[in-house]
Amino acid sequence: MSKEDQIKKWLNNELSAAEMDTFEQGEDFALYKAIVRSGKQFKASNFSKPESFNEFKTAYQNKSSRSKRIKWLKPVLRIASVIVIALGVYFTMFYDTLSQVQTLATQHTTVELPDASKVTLNAGSIINYSKKDWENNRSLNLNGEAYFEVSKGETFDVITSQGIVTVVGTAFNVKQRDHYFEVQCFEGIVSVTSGSHTKQLLAGDTFRILEDSFSVDKTTSSKPEWTSNKSTFKALPYKAVLAEVERQYDIKIRLSNVNEDRLFTGGFMHDNIENALISITQPMGLTYKINASNDVVIYGNKK
After folding, report:
1. Last residue of some domain: 96, 114, 146?
2. Do 18 and 89 fall into the same domain?
3. Between 238-249 and 273-281, two packed helices, what is the crossing angle to 10 degrees?
4. What does pTM read for this prediction?
5. Residues 3-36: pLDDT tens digits?
């Protein structure tokens, strides 16, 4: 078997056990492995230059021996180029099948999926899914918050960093923020798995994990209130409320003598920043000042 045929079979994982043993004993095996490893990393080589005349002279004297080595390496380099190109095509084809939808601060958007299911994204949220494979795999990745109206069909999965929500056909809301994971079921049945917790939710049920603390609750709403431009909170740390205000109004909030872990119950509308700030400060005995269009300071009582 020629060397090139042997390499091709190795790359395709077609060598027999005996052939593989012989191939691994070859003096060039380590080089072939290094080429494949480098091709996968897609990293450019580092360049250097001689720092003195003596180094330049030595490099020039070695020119002929390097030229011979390059000739010997040409078949291997051709194989390496094929590997790199193949890997590039693979990753390009793989990522081209993924669709991403992202909302910025202040934005809401509704997306229709290939099966006519609908996803409405809250501000500062991202979903990724495969259109090409959707018929066989109804699943998407969510970072942020979204309201789902799922068409009947095979299992539908919403995957987040803190848990997986599985349904067949229903309406539900998933919120995944820092140290906070919440699922509200508005219609049908939802199965939620997060770590060691698995819970089936019926319409009106709410599943929450806050700072690693698990709880269940009820909601009387027919859909999440943020879809009607109102954010509501029930016994959530004040810092989570502030983060939502920042997302909905694209502002930066700074605190002065304020306990950001204090629990807040209430809400604010998304149509007027002054009214929103009043709604989240007055119930807590706080005041605020708008220094610029995107800079707000909230003050507590000095002791």
Report:
1. 96
2. yes
3. 180
4. 0.67
5. 667 776 767 667 777 777 777 777 666 666 555 5
